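Weekend entry, working from home. Most of the wet-lab plans are on hold until the incubator is repaired, so I used the time to fold the two sequences that have been sitting in the queue since the last round of cloning. Logging both here for the record. First:
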Amino acid sequence: MTNKISDTRVSGIDVYLVETKSKGDFSDSTRKVETIGYVVVDVRTDSGLHGIGVTYHEVGGEAIAEFILKSIGQKIIGRSPLETEAIYDDIFAYMRGVGRRGLAFCALSALDIALWDIKGKMFGLPVYRLLGGNRTQIPCYASGGWTSYTKDQLVKEVLEMKAAGYKAVKIKIGVDGGKNPNEDARRIKAVSEALGPDIGIMIDANNAFTSAVALRLAYQLRDCNITFFEEPVFADDIPGLARFRAANILPCASGEHEYTRFGARELITNNCIDYLQSDITRCGGFTEGRKMVSFAQAYNISYAPHGFDFIHMHLLSAYSNGVFLESLFMFTELVEKTFADAPKPVNGMMNIPDKPGLGVTLNYKNLTKVGSL
């Protein structure tokens, strides 16, 4: 046992997997979601404190877990949890040939989040306080509305979201693989009519369209109270995103597939987005994620993170350009399976618990242990 906070060192890591088969027919414009899961790390210290980190996957969970165990986990053993900047830089440099995006970066994200959880526990403070935040209530929007739903099913779900107290909803577009934008327009107009003028609507194309097709669809939906049009074109199509936004028909959102501040920089300086959607469970945890949000802040770009509302709430508390969290209905069962006490939105608002670190604990009985360091 150590005597001083500054003496605390990482002493070990346990890595777990938890997965569940999708309950229902969940398809977006490009793929059917069959399995969803988390890779969870439990980082131990020689002071007895430990921290939880998490990243999610639809494919590749085993690869993320093995990359932590065999490649980068050892890089934090013996290090101080306070050294998040130095640790991030060291691991980023170490894995630069294979880890600038994708599964390797998801692995780094889980470790970084765990270190921030430990830091909060070291000082007895929630992570949002460490980040300088003071907001304890953050608006959430409800997210679902899959392209595999019939129009009636779609309308039924958004009305349930409204009844649950959400002031905004997000639904998928790109039916028939993005080949039927007129049907998308009919579906969105039906949703808008059912919800009325006081509920915001986000639409997510999941990379389905060219900029020309997306613009034509946006023009059809200009009177449907659309908060933003998410990923109207392929996420790496910077010119296409810029063309879409330049038309100024509907606000543009993107960034869930950007893993570093450099990707956020390209979206922002090329005038591609009105909303940045980076996900700290993918983009390097709090250490890299907050730099992306700060860069957006400098350009007066709003931050609306992808998924993981009970993790991202800490970041939104600290940043004035953080506007709302995404509450993904598809993940409700998995969250309850993984965490014993993850907070949930109430009437469309997330209340941040005043607990040290992330403020959540694990349901170990539901986790499959992959290995330890």
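Second, folded right after the first finished:
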Amino acid sequence: MPRMVLSLDGVVLREVNLSKERTTIGRRSHNDVVIDNLAVSGEHAVVYASGSDIYLEDLGSTNGTTVNGQPIKKHLLQSGDIVEIGKYRLKFLADGATGSETEVDIDTSQPLRREFYGPGPATIQVRQPAGGADEGGQPAAMIKILSGANAGRELALVKALTTIGRPGHQVAVITRRPTGYFIAHVEGEVFPTVNGANLGSAAHPLKDKDIIELAGVKMEFSNPAAAG
């Protein structure tokens, strides 16, 4: 299925499957891809299918839309095209194509931008699939949810970047680096806590058995590679 990978400052925020005839992009909450940033118009752009082709069309936005650095009104998308809307980038990937963005890690020495990138239900979300091992075949670190509707559920951190939380309320990312796992705040006026301590805006290294509290949900981080 064709898709677009949304990123900001090199950090992947989400993947959007283009399963609908029309996928709208804009600041207002009714869009399929919501980017709550003043540089983005309420209804900024739309991606739509015409036969076997997929087009991107700017909807008369204030600040415009560019593809591969060139301003466009309407553009026939090719796999690998980079769409820029404000400071955000969307990489278009045709059906069956793979994109390196899905493996992008972040510089944990820098705080992430606190930007809202999409609406979501009032439940804890993990945007990467669970599994038993990471991409290198090593036992994956895990999150075990301790409270709320999903209490007892375990989620393997099998990807380089996992987004957790409630979009529009409180969101964080857990990243896997050669030196270990780190958690960083992305969105929300209230910062997550680790073992009861406010996380703040900087990335924080995670240790086995750390307790994370995010969006009113407590969870335990465990790392088999570091345990014992």
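Plan for Monday: verify the second prediction. The chain is about 0% helix and 45% strand.
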